[in-house]
Specification:
By secondary structure, the chain is mainly alpha-helical. About 75% of the residues lie in helices and about 0% in strands. The longest helix is centred in the first third of the chain and has 31 residues. The model has no long low-confidence stretch (mean pLDDT about 85).
């Protein structure tokens, strides 16, 4: 039973990280109908930013908890600035262009950011310190779940609640929903659609940065390529749950996390990705819109 619980909580932790990244994919797609394939690289940049800040603050002899908080905040700000800049440079000029043009631009930006970090840092894996202390009350259950996993789960839950409140009850959230339904009508009633899209990229980049810092601390190492792998997995989760649907992105992330965890624990870690993508194929065959997604009809 302990082994099953360990796998279950491990899958929940994976799903939480995927959810933080998948939210960015699904929000951007819901607003402008574009897959931001550079989103995984924003996640990676957030982790690298946190590592640099942690290294500097550690040399200054600061408190461990203060280092973690400051590194996380700076990583969120820096990644959000990247998300905003990427939208203005790579996506805004192509807003009215054919979808294929925007897709090629997104892939190009992903490759650019990967190689930019490769040249600025290194191709080797770099150690990432775990600054989250062990909780004393968790010692009897340390073989099942650790303090880092607890922090990941709590942080993800808080982010989900705050994001839900923002979208449902704030002015910018209402503007996002209106833009998602009909951009033209949203502009006619006075909504600044360009501002809404920029805010969407900023919020999505911030959640990805939080995920980058947490998972890097959990795994203990990073390199320039981690964003691509995590980005693809989060994209799969978003499609699985129904891309464009925020609850769908969260549900798809948890399902993907549990699938990978149980496949690794009961079958083989060599087939972890095979089971995940096989599950995606089955969902797309029997429900192409995803679990919570709605089918869209296009006029030809």
């Amino acid at each position: 039973m302990d082994y099953f619980l360990e796998l279950f909580l491990g899958g929940l932790t994976r799903g939480s990280i995927y959810a933080l990244i998948a939210l960015g994919y699904t929000m951007v797609y819901g607003i402008i109908g574009l897959i931001n394939f550079a989103h995984g690289e924003i996640y990676m940049i957030g982790a690298f930013t946190a590592l640099i800040v942690i290294s500097v603050l550690t040399l200054m002899g600061m408190n461990t908890l203060a280092i973690l908080v400051i590194a996380g905040v700076i990583a969120v700000i820096y990644s959000s600035a990247y998300g905003y800049t990427v939208e203005k440079i790579a996506y805004k000029p192509l807003r009215n262009a054919p979808r294929l043009s925007a897709l090629i631009s997104a892939i190009g930006m992903s490759l650019f950011l990967q190689n930019y970090v490769l040249l600025a840092q290194t191709s080797d894996f770099l150690p990432f310190p775990c600054l989250i202390p062990d909780f004393e009350f968790m010692e009897p259950y340390a073989h099942i779940i650790g303090s880092t996993e607890i922090v990941i789960l709590i942080t993800t839950a808080v982010v989900m609640v705050l994001l839900t409140i923002m979208i449902k009850f704030t002015k910018i959230g209402k503007a996002m929903r209106a833009t998602s339904q009909d951009k033209t009508m949203a502009m006619l009633v006075g909504i600044n659609v360009n501002r809404v899209i920029s805010v969407t990229f900023i919020v999505g980049s911030a959640t990805a940065a939080i995920g980058g810092v947490l998972i890097a601390s959990h795994v203990g190492m990073i390199n320039f390529y981690v964003g691509f792998i995590a980005g693809i997995k989060a994209f799969v989760a978003a499609v699985l749950g129904g891309i464009g649907s925020i609850p769908g992105a969260v549900l798809g992330s948890f399902i993907l996390g549990w699938t990978e965890s149980f496949a690794t624990g009961y079958v083989s870690s060599d087939y972890e990705d095979v089971f995940a993508f096989l599950f995606l194929v089955l969902i797309l065959i029997f429900r192409p819109a995803g679990i919570l997604g709605r089918s869209e009809k296009y006029k030809i």
